[in-house]
Amino acid sequence: MRLDKLLANMGFGSRKEVKGLLKKGAITVNGTPVKSPSIHVDENKDNVQVNGETVEYREFIYLMMHKPPGLVSATEDKRDETVVDILQPEDRLFEPFPVGRLDKDTEGLLLLTNDGTLSHQLLSPKKHVQKLYYAKINGEVTEKTIKQFEAGVTLDDEYVTKPAILKILEAGPVSEIEIIITEGKFHQIKRMFEAVEMEVTYLKRLQMGSLKLDEDLQLGEYRELSDEELNSLIEDTKKS
Asked: What's the rounded Cα separation, in Å, for the pair 56 and 73?
């Protein structure tokens, strides 16, 4: 990788600012001062230092966010604030994107990364990665509803969903449920309940594959995944 690109990617300034550091002799590669921004370095082997600080190269970033309602699950939007907008500048440098979507008014677990391969694997219908949600429903959810969801529900566009696992936490005029789905159609859970003449009034994602929402994260907060969480997610994509 070009030296100026490496340093810009790692947050040491724009390429123009990196050139200024080079001119000052502030950058060394394997102990030797360098002046040219165009030299190529092995980001995994060469020792690059800026003002004596070793540059730790990272290609990917993996973030768990407790998404608040009101944010769009996108990298940019002309009208609304996005989940990427609330990231710290040092994290936005990696250009992460949300893995799948949570509706604007839905909250809960959202994974952001710049690892396109892992994202594709997690979202692939062939991998059957489960997603667990908690919801409040206007309407009484019954054993009949459970069986309807197990069989697959016909949505308003005639699409028949894959089997979903529905668990009743509290039944009544307003019911509380947990639901597990393996796909992510547009507004899927809301449309599934609309198909059985009920309305979702609150929706929160609790888990994606083996990754569980950290209960210590407040709405709008996020943190990096632990090595254990990341490795478990990678294992999830190997199951099919």
From this structure: 29
- DSSP alpha helices (H): ranges in the chain? 3-9, 15-23, 89-92, 116-123, 143-151, 188-195, 227-236
pTM: 0.86
Shortest CA distance to 144 belongs to which of 160, 168, 169, 162? 168
Amino acid at 38: S
Q: What is the pLDDT of residues 175-232, one digit of tens each?
A: 999 999 999 888 999 999 999 999 999 999 999 999 999 999 999 999 999 999 999 9
* Residue located via tokens 């990364």: 113
Residues noted as catalytic:
103
Q: Kindly report the average pLDDT of the chain as a whole number.
A: 94
27's CB contacts (< 8 A; 6+ apart) are 3, 7, 18, 21, 33, 34, 48, 49, 50
